[in-house]
Design a protein that fits this description.
By secondary structure, the chain is an alpha/beta fold. The protein is built from six helices and seven strands; from the N terminus they run E-H-E-H-E-H-E-H-E-H-E-E-H. The longest helix has 17 residues.
Amino acid sequence: MKIGIITGSVRAVRATEPIAQYVYEIAAQRADDNVSYELIDLKDFDVPLLTSEVHPMAANRQYDDANVQRWSDAIGACDAFVFVTPEYNHGVPGAFKNAVDVLGSEWVGKPVSFVGHGSVGGVRAVEQWRQILSNFSMPLVRAELNFNSFFHMKDGVFSPEPRHAGEVEAMLKQLEGLV
């Protein structure tokens, strides 16, 4: 099985990147013949706004825009996901939400777990993701990680606590168990 760890921010300077890298480094140690992890950076895909006349669920994974097609291929190749999401204005980041919206069947039925970050640990964004992704019948892992901008990100440096490695392990174990 292949699990994609999605860096859900496209900003030039972003706390999401070191957090996703931290999760990936722990996940990579779990990799074996049965499971692999891939870090998927949303910023690398330059996904345009959803303007297609064809509804994504009816597109049969064939898209007119080359960037959307590359995004579809990357997401379609995964069996499960870890969403590493910032919280913007008490909600999900627009670019990440759009990147989910431009696809359809690529998401359906695939398990997902969450790592949130923001002034209150990204909990509101994670809760919104749970509602949004239920549309795709995605099994949702209950365990999640939440990093507080004031405690875990100082002067641009991400500083997880020692307990977080075990929490990542527990979350990944639950996620792997759903695939």
